[in-house]
Structures are given as structure tokens and as C-alpha cells.
Predict the structure.
Amino acid sequence: MSQRKALKVQDSPFARKLSAFVRLSDGDLVAMSDLYRRRRKFAMGIDMIHQGQVERNAYVLASGWACSYKMLRSGSRQIVDFQIPGDFLGLRSVLFRTADHNVEPVTPVLASEVTYRDLIDSFGKTPRLATAVLWAASRDEAMVVEHLVDLGRRSATERTAHFLLELEARLRLVGLGDRKGYACPLSQYLLADALGLSAVHINRVLRELREEGLVTFQKGNVTFEDYDALVKLSGFDRDYLDHDGPLLP
């Protein structure tokens, strides 16, 4: 039974992501499978996690995309990041007493609900899994730092190129993208919100990148026409994503 559980989850996006840092044993995979017990479907546009909620629940995203965002008193919002298959949604909502952000599906989503007790029990069974989740949380923090640099120091063109390359690296890790491109369900409005640009501005930037023969973002697909030139333009250095193979044998 344990071996069947391990085989069932070893090719999941979550396992692929965590395996970038820790070589997961069968025991680690069995403990991970316990986090998948409560699978739920969510429609796009309906929040999975609400800012201010006290229920200590998070989710492991199996399929679909979501966005995390903050609401301001004025009623406006700021998208903080997008979540893809293999990501933890609302990890801080489990560890904090009150959720400090919202999570909304931008496509139909399939996710596993994880409670505080689920997480503590799994970490107690396998500290290596806990270490891998800590790595994933630290990598997410590193991405937030890069996004702050995007907003503060990179031009609109540089930050857009950098963000598209970052998405490729994240998707490649879970088998959903490569240097040729990837499927991307984000609207220009959502992309503009995340990058601190207007919809008109992001449209102009994407057109310029396309006309320069670097990248095309059309009809739900990002296609890299000149990957290396885009990396040079944006100054993209993937070291902050720490995807170069497991550090723990």
C-alpha cells in the first residue's frame, strides 16, 4: 500500500517541485500523499482563501492557475503573484492566526486542502519533507524580492520580460514549460496588475517585444522567439530560483 501511494504522487507537480531541493524517499512520498486526502474543485473568480479569515487551511495546487492578492481599504487590489501546479496556496494562512491575503483561481482549479494538523503530522513523520517545504517557501520569498526590484528599478520592458522568463523557469520545473514557451492563461489585465502597469502600457510593451522578435504572448501562449536575447535584455539570472538540483541527497 505504501509503495502504491509513493508511486501515485512521485510525478505530481508538487513532488517534482520539492525534488528540486530534496531527494524524496518512498517514506517522504507516502507522507506527501497524506496531504492529498481532501481534493476539491474551485471555479475561477471565487476566492479559495480570504484575507482576514481565521480558518487555518491551505491548498496544494494540482491543476490550474491562481493569483494571490491584497485588498486595500479603497477597494483596489494588488496582485502579489501567480500560483501554478505544484505550489502551496496560502501556506501563511496555516502558520499565521489570520490569513493576510486572498487567493483567487484564474482558471478552474483542482487542489488538495491542507489543515494545520495535516501539516504538523506530515512534518513529524518526515523532517525531510518539512525541509523541502521550507525551501519552497524560501524560494517564494526570493521571488517576492525580485518582484520588488521589478517595481522599483526595472523598466516596464525589463520587468515584463523578466516575469515571463521567471514563469518559464517555474513551469519547466514541474514539466509544463521549456525554452520554446508555455501555455499561459493570464489576461493582459492580470499581467498588468501584477507588474504595476496599466493595461494600455502592458499591451504596448508586449507589442514591442513581439516586433523586436523576442517573445510573443498571444491566444493563451507565450512563445520565445529569441530566449537568450530576452535573458540579456531583462538581466534574468535564475540563481534566485535555486533550481539546479537537490542540495540534500
Observations:
- The domain at 140-241 is CATH 1.10.10.10 (Arc Repressor Mutant, subunit A).
